[in-house]
Amino acid sequence: MKRSWPTIVFGLLTILGLVLPWYFNLQFLTAGGSPLEFLRAGFANPAVSSVTVDILIAAGAFLIWMIVEARRLGMRHWWIYVVLTFSIAFAFAFPLFLLMRERRLQELSTHGQGVMNG
Question: What's the whole-model pTM score?
Fold first, then answer.
């Protein structure tokens, strides 16, 4: 199967979404930070609170759309992206889902199957 440019971009963003957030997460944890302190730091001041709330709202919209889209396309194991969003990073789970969605669309196109409307 030929790789499309969106597949390549989503793959690169998936890697960046795994590596970059965890680079900073590990810095925080090795400096003695705890998971509870990490959550508190997400609301340390109005600027950081704005970014935190922005990401939480975007992640919520993504999760709703992702569940609907995964079911529409017949993608199995959609719940893994929910787990990855909260255990690894939204910046990892979102482009990974888009990558796998793109691959599923290519698969459906190759096999002459249409997309289910839900």
Answer: 0.87
